[in-house]
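Contributing new records

If you add data, match the layout below exactly. Sequence lines come first and carry their own label; structure lines follow with theirs. Keep one chain per record. Anything else will be rejected by the validation script.
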Amino acid sequence: MSRTFFALLLLSGPLAAADWPQILGPTRDGHSAETKLNWNWSAKPPAVAWTKDVGHGWAGVVVATGTAFLFHRVANEEVLLALDAVTGQERWKFAYPAKYQDDFGFDDGPRATPTVVDGVAYLLGANGDLHAVEIAKGEKKWHRNVLKDYAAGKGYFGVACSPLVADGKVIVNVGGKGASLVAFDAATGKELWKVANDEASYSSPQLAEFGGKKVVVAFTRRGLLGVDLAGGKQLFEMKWRSRLDASVNAAVPLILDSHIFLTASYGTGAVLLKCDGTSVEEVWSNDTSLSSQYSTPVRVGEYLYGTDGRADFNSGRLRCVAWKTGEVAWTQDRFGCASVLAVDGKLLAVTEGGELVAFEANREKFVELGRKAILDGKVRAVPALADGRLFVRDETKLVCVSLK
């Protein structure tokens, strides 16, 4: 199954080639099709094109048609801010009252990265407010609160599912009774189908094709769930989660040819599953290959590149793993937890400490190409790469870094 399938299926609207319109990019797997970036950082280090002070939140930036969209919380409002991607100048903002209060006194901003399709941004706030906003002028198209509508709990850290938009449907891991996954009409917000009883996780659903059928693949709080996109019929499920209740599932499922890869921390690890569209069969599973607390690894050929360990334990390390067997090819200790992107035949990582690191997609050893500190605070939001510009935010600041 090619990444082109995802690009055409998910983003059939009039988006530019350089757009980054959803979590993990155009193909929702951390890959960028851009080429001819600047990799000679010793001669010309990446330059910060502009910066902007931001409010609370862990939502990543998305970019569509020359506009960067920042979803954050300012005072008592959740705000979608449209910025000129080149200059950072504000174009418009859409705001609504924010009610989320974190039970642990952590960040009270939105966690979910918006999705932009066919001129509409779909955003899900920390308290379950699901909005469709027309990006031409920042006008509301429709709204509903999924926690209220489906009597779902907010979990430990609020709602964090980045909406999946496909075939005119907006799919969200809601977590209510009989409503683990819910599909809404993208034009009206009307419920189209709902299925299963799993509680919501902090992972975002993925789209796959198995046996010629489009399947929504979700990593819920309970484990794996596969649902027919068209009608909402449950196709397969598998319980796979930590025995520790105080745990989260956060990485996005990866579709690797006819396989599904899941990873989590808290003594859980990773699992590779063979899938025929109606059932799954375990290929391998362990807690020694790639146990990612929140970030999603990226595939390059027969290998995955991602971080193993927990950010709250300062145990993050970078790893290269053969995805078909789980064999660890190499480990770079003390790297820190990070988001990893594949672009131009190489890899970029943004560490939780705010460093941008370029390295080779090399299965033999870690080969660093360059490193630059770009932020001072904690970075957990997934970065965006569009038209040679990298957009990254920490707790207080958004930077646009030129990689041209």
